From TrEMBL:
It comes from the Bacteria. This is MBL fold metallo-hydrolase. It holds the Pfam family Lactamase_B_3. SUPFAM superfamilies: Metallo-hydrolase/oxidoreductase.
Length: 160
């Protein structure tokens, strides 16, 4: 497995049979093999975890799928803006927290996706793919802030 850091919370993981792109925000995505499946994960809608350029990847990579947090709009207006067709929707999984999803990667590999509720917004992802296990937290973190006071911090500790 090769992991490439793309900045902030963005990572590209390359496995033998598939690429996983997590929370792409900025930086250059390395050139990928077009025949290898690409699965794009977006943990939540904040601009530093979700760059709308991910929708352009469909033009360059024919085997792309998306796993996006349910807090990301898929309204008709948004679909029109990014030319997302009914056929494209078949390759978009809208992931809710605290769920388990299974995905067949074009008949090659089985992918199990477990999601967890973030302490901020959206989801964290725990993946099992063949012999590999990956975890991407998104904004799941113990957010403790002195300026927020003890009640806030106690609630955050409980949620974490």
């Amino acid at each position: 497995m090769i992991i490439t850091y793309l900045g902030h919370s963005g990572f590209l993981a390359e496995l033998e049979d598939v690429y996983f792109l997590f929370d792409y925000y900025k930086g250059e995505i390395p050139k990928l093999q077009k025949e290898k499946p690409l699965i794009v994960f977006v943990s939540h809608r904040h601009h530093d975890h979700y760059n709308r350029k991910i929708w352009d990847l469909r033009k360059e990579y024919p085997h792309v799928r998306y796993v996006i947090s349910k807090d990301i709009s898929m309204s008709e207006r948004m679909r029109q803006r990014f030319s997302i067709t009914e056929e494209d929707l078949k390759n978009i999984l809208r992931a809710a927290p605290n769920q388990i999803y299974e995905m067949d990667i074009w008949g090659k590999t089985a992918l199990k996706i477990e999601t967890f509720r973030s302490t901020d917004e959206g989801t964290a992802f725990y993946l099992t793919c063949g012999k590999h296990t990956l975890y991407h937290a998104g904004d799941l973190q113990l957010w403790l802030w002195q300026e927020e006071g003890e009640e806030w911090n106690r609630d955050m500790r409980n949620r974490f």
